[in-house]
Amino acid sequence: MGIKTEELHTLLSEIIQDETRILTETFDLVSYSFDASFGSFTPDIVVQAMSTTEVAAIMKLANQHNVAVYPRGQATGLSGGSLPVHGGIVLDLSQWNDQLDIDPIDMVATVSPGVITADINDAAMKEGLMYPPDPSSAHVSTIGGNLAENSGGPRGLKYGVTKDYVIGLEVVTPEGEVIRTGGRTIKNVTGFDLTKLIVGSEGTLGVITEATVRLHPKPLATKTMMTVFHNIVDAGKAVTLILTSGIVPSKLEIMDNASIVAVEEYEPLGLPTDAGALLLIELDGHPRAIEDEMERVKEACTKAHMADVQVAETAEEEQELWKARKLVSPAIVREKPTKISEDATVPRSKIPEMFERLMVIKEKYDVDLVVFGHAGDGNLHPNIIADKRDHEEMRRVEQAVGEIFEAAVDLGGTLSGEHGIGTLKAPFMEMELGEVGLDLMKRIKTSWDPNNILNPGKIFPEPGQKLVLTDD
Amino acid sequence: MTEPKLAYEETFDCVQCGYCLPACPTYVSMGSEAQSPRGRINLVKMAAEGKITYSELEGPIDLCLGCRACEVVCPTNVQYGRILDSAKEVLQAEKKKTMPKHVKLFQDFMFKKSFPSSKILSVGSAGLAFYQKTGLQTLARKTKMINILPEKLRTFERAMPKVEGPMKRRNRAKQYEPTKQPKLHIGFFVGCIMDVMFSEINTLSMKLLEAAGCEVTVIKEQTCCGALQHHSGETDTTKRLAKQNIEAFEKHNFDYVVNSIGGCGAMLVEYDILLENEPDWAERAKAFAAKNVDISVILSKFDLPFTKEIHQKVTYQPSCHLSNVQRKVEEPLKLIHSIPGIDFVPLPEAHMCCGSAGTYNIEHYDASMKILDNKMDNVKEIEPDIIITTNPGCHLQMKVGVERTGDEERTQVVHLVQLLAEACEIQL
């Protein structure tokens, strides 16, 4: 940092008149040192920006004095995207939530970066519309963070992920210039698609200050069913058979035996603890169409040797079925507190094979691995449960995670389906992208951010960087 | 006495997912991570590791309401209450090391002697009743004499309920017996401040229980629940009071021990946690805690003898300690819906704390009023005739809220028990 913290504070005070939005106390600084991933890095100062003018001025100042800036939403990220790894300014955008405009005719929403993702959907629902991307943290996470990480969720299977909905952005560049990308129309081929470049760039290319996202008509009805299988490979086959029968469920989630048993021990719901795996399937659309699709899903599952099926007849029963999936997280952390949630993703056709590989890795490194997640789009969530105070165990976990990544890439998949690269997966980037691919990305970064001040230390590995899952 | 310790191990259960942020009234109103459950847990962990000082920890811990809404939404079941209580205890012990002697003596008097002593509180309440009944209150208000009080005390002076004189309370029956064979034998927990400020609600509670077919007994050996002391980090005093209550109620064979005070109830049901490390008491505390329930739990089991329809638009502001600690959410709602003629409108964001939180609204007046104003924005949206509460602290706070929005003519604040009694035409 080419400037003293006190001096930086003085200059920031000229930009942000409201002194309460500049945080410098130790208890504040350490409170912005972490996110939902691993590692803790204390920033020099935290600024809560509330307008494009403020963000632009902050970026100009930072660029001039070579101070690192880390845009941050509610820090629910699982890959370390908002961690202030080299000190400097945490740019907290979570409090900037004043704009949430729904336009039912253009079918778009225009939002400030700090708006909570679920609030967009709730507002859209009032107009008979919906905002489909639904990361499980949607009721906490900001749209700014979702855009930066290109978040997905269960509905990704049918409706796609964040990048499929954003059509226009206002962005402040690392040099403090304000640009607008895309617009309010679905069709727009004018120039490079910078909107899609910014989305998923994890805050390394620009600070998103406003977004225009597409909305979708709200489905008339939904219906949920649970199908049970003797083993996880059968369940994997059922997924393939369902998706090749001309039906796209709105959600298709899987729970393996370990997660079923954990939930049942945590709160008895009457789940089949002897089952190898179960699928939770939600169909949406016209009620009559759903009835027909429901039968076809059952047929597909029967072909995959389904052991049992349960269809929710009421809204309460529907909630009861989804409760099982919701309770997986609290249930699996009862024995040990640290949860390493991976999101390696493979092509649908490789789901059964990926399951087999995961079981081998579980044995090989003797780790507590459970699998649950979005089976339909190949975005499995192998979760390893450990105790981060046990360093020996964590070393085994790190090796297991490395091997999970290798397996995914080997099967034609990817390191990350929806959590992002951040600091955690940076060491594996070259494995997937190759030397040239990674170098090209670095050159894009340099042309946008010549002084490397915006979210440094992310995506691109630093020399000798390895996966580390402990905090110290 | 052992040196108090921070609940360090418990902090490891937090995976820092942030799901608690939108549920936390102080995070929502103050907007900084240090004022969130996730932030506070991290600060406790860092203090335990010696990475920050106790004084760095103090501000954010002091500003926590202790509403425990974060525990309900936590996906990994972090025991936030234990972490918070440990921090309060440690900070209080630290403070005492440097506290001027007269402050320490005054605090000790209030916590150890005054609240638990019905006599001392009674003298205070007699004064309050005298002040209200003789017209001194009106005089003080009219002559603006009242303005010599600081704003925050003036606010609560206005919201104060009409206090029953000490004679009336003293003459209250010690036993309420139904005409038929009692369905349940109940020991009634009166609370200390409750039985002074809101003794009317206690009286109505017992009459309702009687009307529902229960036998109700008030034993005089009971004492203060210890909640206020506990929230101030005075754990030793709390334990002493807990033991006194356990001993008192153990002598009787009650089916349940019932109270009408969300906050006290929360303390009583956690006596097992409070005394878990005392081998002579752990089991007894567990048995006692299991017997303690909110009045809504008992009344919702029976059909109340309603005789009067209440055609009012009502809403319900739940007590955090009833919902989040006692985990009783449905029972009060079931009772409200059972009142004939009632028009119930749910309060948006009802689960958010009103900002009362024990003595928080006096100690942190500005923070509390900001939280209250958020609450009142939601009240404004539905314009109820009546706001129902289940705890005296919330009751006072909501009255202050209604005054702040100038709606005291339009909107009444009542305890659930008062409304049920009215619908059953039960008089004091």
Summarize this, please?
The complex is a heterodimer of chains A (472) and B (428). Chain A has 472 residues and is α+β, with helices and mostly antiparallel strands. Chain A has helices at 5-15, 26-31, 52-65, 117-125, 143-149, 156-159, 194-198, 232-243, 257-266, 287-303, 315-326, 328-332, 351-365, 391-410, 429-448, and strands spanning 22-23, 45-48, 69-72, 89-92, 100-103, 108-111, 129-130, 166-172, 178-182, 207-214, 216-217, 221-229, 251-256, 277-285, 306-311, 338-341, 368-374, 379-386.
Topology:
The complex is a heterodimer of chains A (472) and B (428).
Chain A: H1 5-15, E1 22-23, H2 26-31, E2 45-48, H3 52-65, E3 69-72, E4 89-92, E5 100-103, E6 108-111, H4 117-125, E7 129-130, H5 143-149, H6 156-159, E8 166-172, E9 178-182, H7 194-198, E10 207-214, E11 216-217, E12 221-229, H8 232-243, E13 251-256, H9 257-266, E14 277-285, H10 287-303, E15 306-311, H11 315-326, H12 328-332, E16 338-341, H13 351-365, E17 368-374, E18 379-386, H14 391-410, H15 429-448
Helix pairs in contact in A: 8-10, 8-13, 13-14
Chain B: H1 8-11, H2 25-30, H3 37-48, H4 54-62, H5 69-73, H6 80-98, H7 101-114, H8 118-133, H9 136-142, H10 151-159, H11 166-170, E1 175-176, E2 184-188, H12 193-197, H13 199-211, E3 214-217, H14 227-231, H15 235-250, E4 256-259, H16 262-268, H17 271-274, H18 282-291, E5 292-294, H19 295-299, E6 313-316, H20 320-325, H21 330-338, E7 343-344, H22 360-363, H23 365-382, E8 386-389, H24 392-404, E9 412-415, H25 416-423
Parallel strand pairs in B: 2-3, 2-4, 4-5, 6-7, 6-8, 8-9
Antiparallel strand pairs in B: 1-3
